[in-house]
Amino acid sequence: MNALRTLVSPRGAVFLLLVILLIAVTILNPSFAEPGQFMRFIQRVAPVAIVAIGQYFVIIAGEFDLSQGSLITAQVIIAGNLVGQDDSRTVPVLVLMVVFGALVGLVNGLITTLLKVPSFIVTLGMMLALLGGVMWWTGGAATGNPSDSFREIGRGGIRDVCPSWSSSHGRCSCSPGGWRSASGSPSAPSVSCSSPPATTREPSITRVPGARG
Amino acid sequence: MKRLRLDSTVIVLGILLLTLIVGAILVSTYGRNFFSAGNIRDILTGMSVLGLVAIGQTLVVLGASLDLSVTYVVSLSSLIAATIMGGNAANIPAAVVITLLVCAGIGLVNGLIVTVLKVNGFIATLGVGLILQGFLNTNFEGSAGNVPWAFQLIGATGIGPVPLSTIIMLALAVLIWFLLDRTRTGAHLFAVGGDPEIARLSGVRTKRPLIAAHVLCSVFAGLAGLLLASRLGVGSPTVGQQGGYALLSIAAVVLGGTVLLGGRGSIWGTIGGVAILAVVDNVMSVMQVNPFLKDVVRGIVIVAAVAVYSRRAIIKRRPRFGTGGTRTGGDAAAKAAEAEMAAAATHLTDTTATPEGGRA
Questions:
Q1: For B257, which DSSP code?
Q2: Chain center to CA of B25
Q3: Contact state of B293 with A132 under an 8 Å Cβ cutoff
Q4: Phi then psi for B158, rounded to 5 degrees?
Q5: DSSP annotation of A207
Q6: pTM for this model (two decimals)
Q7: Please, what is the Cα angle at B337 between B335 and B340, to 5 degrees?
Q8: Which residue from B9, B99, B167, B232 has the fewest beta carbons nearer than 10 Å?
Q9: Mutate to test the interface with B, among A126, A128, A137 (most CBs of B within 10 A)
Q10: Considering only CB atoms, which chain B residues are within 8 Å of A135?
Q11: Is B134 on the interface with A (CB under 8 A)?
Q12: Which residues of chain B make contact with A128, given a CB cutoff of 8 A?
């Protein structure tokens, strides 16, 4: 009875809704529940989850951050261009990107608190400026095709668990394993989680959600 | 500390004047005349569509809500109008009426979700916007319909350097000014936006003004869509997103001194905010700035302009006393009622002081 009440409460209703949705989708399309498919689905959701965790801090303080979408686009383009085909640059560029993100957030926060501009407007301005700036730099086209070792972070996994998902959880929960994605060759090294079968060399830019809504 | 007591609308006009002067100087360094009839027409034309959307957005923001669905309402309205007209001038009245009714319906849905289901306006209108986007993407592959020449004239003609579309926009702004400043619905909208609980305790029906604001906002977005259809000659499913009207209209509203949390602001401030954006755009166009760099400048201008008056607490409340105030009767009437008020006050403190004492 108590558990039922928790499920109907606002906090529990989200998960109830999620379960209902998952069941409904599985009924409509049974292949969705296959471990490989499901893992790939989780992999696609991971970036949204990471972004939402960040947005949570801002929303809970009663503010907005509209600049996240543009910042993601900017990060992708900058990282893609800086890493290039040079594997050794992966770690420095990763660090630089985290610093860049923190800097953008710092500017947003300082303008909101010191200049007392509503965060909606600050981050709207930041959204326009970031996207415009990065597009201006690249001429509006998707550029940069980072090296494979860098892309492994987004595409590969650590023993069957997608790293972007487990890092968003804060712990690495290894799945029981036993499944392999359709194209995952058995001879691949230990990092062979779930590279999508059909799209082996898709340009990384295409995965970025549009910054403008 | 001496603090300037300026109306926010005055500051907006000041910033607009500054933008005009800087713009005129920048344009003249390129050997062009900023105040030529053609250029003024360009600026005013640029104002009209965003102006219409921003007028509606002002109402919603005053009610402490937001409308992010306007972009899709604009697209949908242009498509409905162009499809129904189908190149036949006889269909214009029917097309306009049906388009605006559909838009009003969308606004009603927004308003009901926000007030009855008590969903935050940001989320409610984001959801409605996504539904509309899905509808547009599944049912239209590209531009559709055909707008007859008679309707295209609305977007193409003008009186002197002033385009007809801008005149329509300003006339509607006067209408909304009247609604806000001289009618009960307007006063209630300010009250509900300022503090819904206090408005409710004061006997205001809190849902109605906010629903009305959402309906009017969608209707104004529909009018903007009609204007775009008249300019393009066809309806387009992406015309709203291309303009980025939802966020830009909110930016213009806040630029115009309307408080994002609702309850304070004015329609003329919004028009000023729209004018600032239009002038900045025009100057950059004349200077042939890279279109992506334009976004950077636009973002900086929006933040900087809002920062100018957000730093000082100068956003004026509506006067409660004195000329133009909400209190009826003069000082004499207040004096006459003083004894009665004092008696009522002592009576109130006797009976209700304790239960209300804990509230801040």
A1: T
A2: 30
A3: yes
A4: -165, 170
A5: G
A6: 0.78
A7: 130
A8: B167
A9: A128
A10: 292, 295
A11: no
A12: 295-296, 298-299, 302
Residue A13 amino acid letter: A
CB contact under 8 A, A117 and B306: yes
B-chain residues within 8 Å CB-CB of A131? 292, 295
Nearest CA-CA distance, residue B160 and chain A, Å? 35
CA B217 remoteness from chain centre: 8
Neighbours of B331 (CB within 10 A): 10
CA A100 to centroid of chain Cα atoms: 17
Neighbouring C-beta atoms of residue A135, cutoff 10 Å: 22
Contact A125 B299 (CB under 8 A): yes
User: What is the dihedral angle through the alpha carbons of B5, B9, B13, B15, rounded to the nearest 10 degrees?
Assistant: 70
Among B15, B24, B4, CA closest to B315: B4
pLDDT along chain B (360 residues), means of 10: 60 89 91 88 92 96 94 96 92 95 97 95 95 94 89 87 92 96 94 93 93 97 95 92 91 90 90 94 90 91 85 52 54 71 70 45
The 3-state DSSP class for residue B263 equals coil
Backbone angles phi, psi at B299, to 5 degrees: -60, -45
Residue contact A136–B251, C-beta within 8 A: no
3-class secondary-structure state, position B316? coil
Q: Please, which pLDDT band fits residue A35 given cuts at 50, 70 and 90?
A: confident
Largest CA distance in chain B: 76
Q: How far apart are CA B79 and CA B142, in angstroms?
A: 10
Q: Which helix (H) or strand (E) holds B163?
A: strand B162-163
How many whole angstroms separate alpha carbon A53 and alpha carbon B262? 28
Q: Which residue of B129, B296, B303 is in closest CB contact with A132?
A: B296
Phi, psi of B142 (to 5 degrees): -165, -165
Beta-carbon separation of A116 and B250 below 8 A? no
Buried b (16+ CB within 10 A) or exposed e, B283-310: bbbbeeeeebbbbbbbbbbbbebbbbbb
Q: Which amino acid is at B140?
A: F
Structure tokens at B329: 């009767």
Q: Residue A139 — very low, low, confident or very high, per pLDDT cuts 50/70/90? A: confident
What ipTM was estimated for this complex? Answer: 0.78
State the Cα–Cα distance between residues B164 and B258, nearest whole angstrom.
27
Residues of B in contact with A127 (CB under 8 A): 247, 299
> B162 — phi, psi (to 5°)?
-95, 115
Report the gap between the CA of B306 and the closest CA in chain A (Å).
Answer: 6
Closest residue by Cα to residue A40 from A206, A198, A211, A201: A198
Contact check, Cβ <8 Å, A118/B310: yes
A119-138 helix and A68-83 helix, angle to the nearest 10 degrees: 30
DSSP code at position B317: P
Alpha helices, DSSP H only, in A61-118? 68-83, 90-113
